Amino acid sequence: MKKLFTACLMSILFVHTVFAQKELTHDERMKWWREARFGMFIHWGDYAELAGMYKGHEVGRGGEWIMNRAKIPVAEYQQFAKKFNPVKYDADAWVKLAKEAGMKYIVITAKHHDGFAMFKSNASKWNIADATPYGKDVLKPLAAACYKYGIKLGFYYSQAQDWNNPGGAAARKVSSEGWANPDSARIDAYTRENNGHWDSVQTSSTMGEYIDRVAVPQVKELLTNYGDVAVIWWDTPTNMTDEYAQKLQDVLKQQPNIISNDRLKRPNFAGDYKTPEQKIPNLSELDGKDWETCMTMNGTWGYKSYDHKWKTPETLIHNLIDIASKGGNYLLNVGPNAEGEFPQESIASLKQIGAWMKVNGEAIYATKASPLQPLTWGRCTLKPDGKNTILYFSVFNWPTDGKLVIPGLKNEIVSAKLLTDGASLKSEATNDGIAINVPAAATDAIATVVKVEVKGVVDGQTARANSKMKTGSID
């Protein structure tokens, strides 16, 4: 029955793709993404089987880079796939958790740099259906679950780097990072001489042949077999040319409403949004373009059994708020283990984020960047509301004197209330800005949101100038 249900859902997905999709303008295509603000990144592949360990040694950096960092020969690495059997994988549970966390879209590694496809592919036998005892495509049930729960689906695809399929590029990284490889000197010399490759099998075809034989056909498969695909997430355009990039860009015409990031090939293939990694940009770094910060929950993208450097739920929620206050999206990563399970630390944090979002998601979804100077005590997001403006103030540091001062804001306040329970708050104009009388204690230990409606449009330039004048910092 479960297989029949999945097959029916996939049929619906196909029909929806073929008949319901009409070409949209750029802003129309980006609308859902700009409103989503929060998504889940999933780095999962056969590298989870190694869990960051090779020959009894911990290998540095991301778990998904272990083949490159340890310079594992192709034939040896492919043997590990014969043990990869994620029998505890439950796509429905994954997507349900993402939804409960308040996430609006999922981007999963359909193929990472090791070249291992997490789907049935006719372009390479190096895929989960053909090379593992699991023997099944994991993307189809994920697509069905996303459709079921109303979550947008995206695919990460390593278009250039591929360390198993001959002809794929390899980043010029030296070996032995994080472990003592006795043969490292010879391997490093070979790697430098062979454009980052460390195994002669990798250079037995040209990159042009790889693009035509593997990359283009696999992207076609991804855009054909899984219904609506909302995002294609390219990565590391090592040795990419405009010619190669154009071939892949042309494939996206199969789904004209798909959006893509900026990593296909710089600078001529800019995509729809920028992707700062593991950091939140400063305001001075933003240029008005759409952007998305991708970030790990601990220190690695792919699963490593010994990485316990977990960010706290408070940090993750503050990151989400900070990013939204600057007009960006937060793509937060989970690295499942070899059996197909999310780490318990990830699950616990996602549930806590979800609890906060259930109450305060209004301050995140479909908001715009703050028009005000950066606040010392929290962050601000904005929503136009007819002729008025709604400002959401997420307070990290609760005022000890019972007054929340919003510097630079001169608009007349229509209402002010706590988002948690809707309790009305009194406000007044002061020399320092608008002061809102708040309870003695915060209603949320991580971030309490104060919702303020003001008359008219908030003039950001004037508000920032007013704020600077009060602090004496205006030039």
Overview of the structural elements:
The strands form four sheets. The chain has a seven-stranded parallel beta sheet with strand order 7-6-5-4-1-9-8, sandwiched between helices. Strands 10-11-16-13 form a four-stranded antiparallel beta sheet. Helix content is 31%, strand content 17%. The chain contains 13 helices and 16 strands. The longest helix is centred in the first third of the chain and has 19 residues, at 2-20. It is an alpha/beta fold and 475 residues long.
Helix proportion range: 25-40%
Named at the architecture level, the CATH assignment of the largest domain is Alpha-Beta Barrel
> Radius of gyration over alpha carbons?
24 Å
| Main sheet makeup | 7 strands, parallel
Assembly context of the chains: single chain
Number of alpha- plus pi-helical segments:
13
Task: Report low-confidence residues grouped into runs of 5 or more.
Answer: 471-475
**Average pLDDT over all residues:** 92
The CATH homologous superfamily of the largest domain is termed: Glycosidases
Please state the overall shape, judged from the principal axes of the Cα atoms. elongated
Give the SSE order as H and E letters: HHEEEHHHEHHEHHEHEEHEHEEEEEEEH
SSE inventory with pairings:
Elements: H1 2-20, H2 26-36, E1 38-42, E2 53-54, E3 57-58, H3 66-69, H4 74-80, H5 91-100, E4 105-111, H6 128-131, H7 139-149, E5 152-157, H8 184-193, H9 207-224, E6 231-234, H10 242-251, E7 259-260, E8 292-295, H11 313-325, E9 329-334, H12 344-360, E10 378-385, E11 388-395, E12 403-406, E13 413-418, E14 427-430, E15 433-437, E16 448-454, H13 460-471
Parallel strand pairs: 1-4, 1-9, 4-5, 5-6, 6-7, 8-9
Antiparallel strand pairs: 2-3, 10-11, 11-16, 12-15, 13-16, 14-15
